[in-house]
Amino acid sequence: MVAACNMPRIGRAALWLLFLASCPAMAIEPDGIIDAMEWEGATIIDDFKVTQPFTEETPVHPVSARVKAVPEGLAVVVRAEMPPEVARSRQPVQHDFTAKVDRINIMIDFEGDGRTAYDFYLSSTGGTGDAVVTNEDTFNYSWDGSWRHAISEDRNGWTAEILIPWHTAPMKDATDGKRTIRMYLDRVIASTGERAAWPTASLERSRFLSDFAAIEVPEYNHSLLAVTPYVSMLRGKGDRQQDFRSGADVFWKPNEVFQLSATLNPDFGQVESDDLVVNFSAIETFVKEKRPFFTENQSLFDFTMPSDSSQLLYTRRIGASADDGGGSSDIRAAAKVNGSYHGMDFGVLYADEDESAGRTFGAVRVRGAFGEHDLGLMMTRADRPFLDKVATVVGIDHDWKYGANLRLQSRWVQSRIKERGAGVQGTGATLVVNYDPDQEWRHQLVAMHFGAGFQINDAGFLARNDLDYLHWQISRRYARLPESSRYASKLWRWRLTEAYNTRSERLQRQLRINRQSSMRDGSLEVLQLNMNGASLDDRFMRGNGTFRRPSNFNLYGEYGQPRKGDWALKGFLEIATGGLAGNDLIGGRVGFEPTFFASDDLSFSLRLSYTENPDFLVWQGPRGPTMQDVIGRFDQKALEANAGIDWNISSAHELRVKLQALGFDAKFTQAVRIAPNGGIAVAADPVDSFNLRNLGLQVRYRYRIAPLSDLYLVYAKGGFEERTGSAPLVDIFEEALRLDEDEQFLVKISYRFEL
């Protein structure tokens, strides 16, 4: 057992594990077997505690680990005891899997400052995944690392062994031949949902990354120059000529504190398809980044704010639709530099789009730790010559971790937009306070102010400006429930929210009650009630006025059961009111998502959902001689299917089929006019019913040639169609399945050369 295991929890989490730098480091080649000679001199960790449910008890089925620094990287082996009476998951999984299977997580904070960690996780069947953890508990699974691993299994359990190269991430300067990193390990049993971890950090607390255990390791410097060229061929429907592309990504890490990423003529053809979205609101849809260059060591540029998905640098802007509306912009070149100097992290990103309507993007980031305080500065610039527009944004972020239970995060951002000679400035500021008085209770306060002139969407993402927002949330965890209970733990949350625009018009008043329950069989149950008071809507009409929305509510329930035999099941039910009718009309959604496992390697999934909204609102714009805004009210119904086939043919071969289809019908019921004073009156304006259909189908074969080297064969088809009039929903949905406006076949091969 690790020395001083009887220290308090916080003391253990800060424990220094001393590696014997004077002993010769023997090379470790992961094979899933704990070889005594290989692991001689390693630190043994067996002080794992149950953190899900958060009881901090010793797990019934022991977990132990060995950690050793070698010249090639950080080696970790985890032994998970699972006697025959404990049900095991035999399901192979694809990379970055989300399936509930037996697995382990190894998280490393290479800089040791509690700001960024890298998660390496393995299933008991050899499936792998990796992610970047920032802002204590935010996971980004788009990042892919290069690391070695092996799994072995026997009657009494299984063993996972990995080797993480030192070139994976930037690190701080070493002192006297040693450097401090931080670490977290856990094991999850799928059949019960139990998680045992070391140290006792939990995602259910306001701190997670900060509670990792500090480790002192010898200074090793592993430099790397990697070049990943690619060749792709894309053929679209009706094309007589094929579109060939070639380019390369370059990654250079000459030492432990500096790294450079660059891309030349990048190919951002989709081998990962985005979800279908139909959006009638005035709020832009946020889309996750999936392109390798923009996910590689991007965490330093994560300057986020508590408003949904808000961030100063939203890389999906780069290569998006050109400013002349002529389709997606080609990216000529992009480069990114990350490094560390005397404890300060720094980064520079630059991207240049092709053609006259292209743009140039730049970002500079500096961040450092000063005792209990983290302080950072970030500046972004978007140059849009077609619009004669330059957008500059500067932000300062501060994170104060006071003691073990209190954390304050503040952001101050100023934007300056110059377009066609005119300038607009605006300011935004946010504050998040998290206080955990003990293991059961948690308090959170969130305050935001975004001025009317605050604009960051040229290079970043913000759902809306002109906002003053405040919420207070209390949470309580129940982890020690009676053995007779079907629940292993329950987490209750109560939240009060108030939001106004800068003209003091109320935009939101909400009471939210949420309960998330983990069951002893690994199932998950979620219940949430939102009760909304009457408010004004000042965004629906795209800045052309406001109108009053009456009180409404939303009740949502979800139940998910992990795989039992050949089936995994999930379902949800939502009852909601809204629109102009408020609580007088009730609608909702219902969905069912079964997954059938024909074998451990082959599964079929289907998510079928039905939506009914009896007071669906669509802005029609200003009409008539008075040019008053008109809103159409509709009885809206939608049927959506998400189907998939996942076939893990072998560790190197996988086949995935993903289909999304949507049928949507909106039957006109009434038109209303919005007067300048916000009043609503029934109008005689003609408004058409409408229906639409949307389809996306992707068939993707992937052959993993080597780490970060792949061959893709991708076939995709789909389309979008909107018609006037109402029609039977089933007919619309069937027609959606026959759409074939767009059709593409992509072949792409990339190979990573490490020099």
Report on this model:
With about 750 residues, this protein is mainly β. Helices cover about 0% and strands about 55% of the residues. The chain is built from 3 helices and 42 strands. The chain has a 24-stranded antiparallel beta barrel. Strands 1, 3, 6, 7, 8, 9, 12, 13 and 14 form a 9-stranded mixed β-sheet that branches. Strand 33 and strand 34 form a beta hairpin. It is globular. Residues about 1-25 have low confidence and may be disordered.
Q: What distinguishing features does this structure have?
A:
mainly beta; disordered N terminus; nine-stranded mixed β-sheet; globular; 755 residues
Quick recap:
The chain is an all-beta fold. 2% of the residues lie in helices and 56% in strands.
Dominant shape: globular
Low-confidence stretches: 1-24
Structural class: mainly beta
How much of the residues is beta strand, in percent? over 45%
Largest sheet: 24 strands, antiparallel, barrel
- Percent of residues in helices comes to under 10%
What gyration radius follows from the Cα positions, in whole Å? 27 Å
Q: How many extended strands?
A: 42
Distance between the termini: 41 Å
The average pLDDT score comes to 89
Count up the helices: 3
Q: What's the SSE blueprint?
A:
Layout: H1 9-13, E1 17-18, E2 43-45, E3 49-52, E4 63-70, E5 73-81, E6 103-109, E7 116-123, E8 128-134, E9 138-140, E10 148-154, E11 157-165, E12 178-188, E13 195-198, E14 213-218, E15 224-236, E16 243-255, E17 258-264, H2 292-295, E18 331-341, E19 344-353, E20 360-370, E21 373-384, E22 389-402, E23 406-419, E24 422-435, E25 441-450, E26 467-478, E27 487-500, E28 506-519, E29 524-532, E30 535-537, E31 547-549, E32 552-564, E33 567-578, E34 582-597, E35 602-623, E36 628-647, E37 653-674, E38 680-683, E39 690-706, E40 709-724, H3 729-736, E41 742-750, E42 753-754
Parallel strand pairs: 1-14
Antiparallel strand pairs: 2-4, 3-13, 4-5, 5-11, 6-7, 6-12, 7-8, 8-9, 10-11, 12-13, 12-14, 15-16, 15-41, 15-42, 16-17, 17-18, 18-19, 19-20, 20-21, 21-22, 22-23, 23-24, 24-25, 25-26, 26-27, 27-28, 28-29, 29-32, 30-31, 32-33, 33-34, 34-35, 35-36, 36-37, 37-38, 37-39, 39-40, 40-41
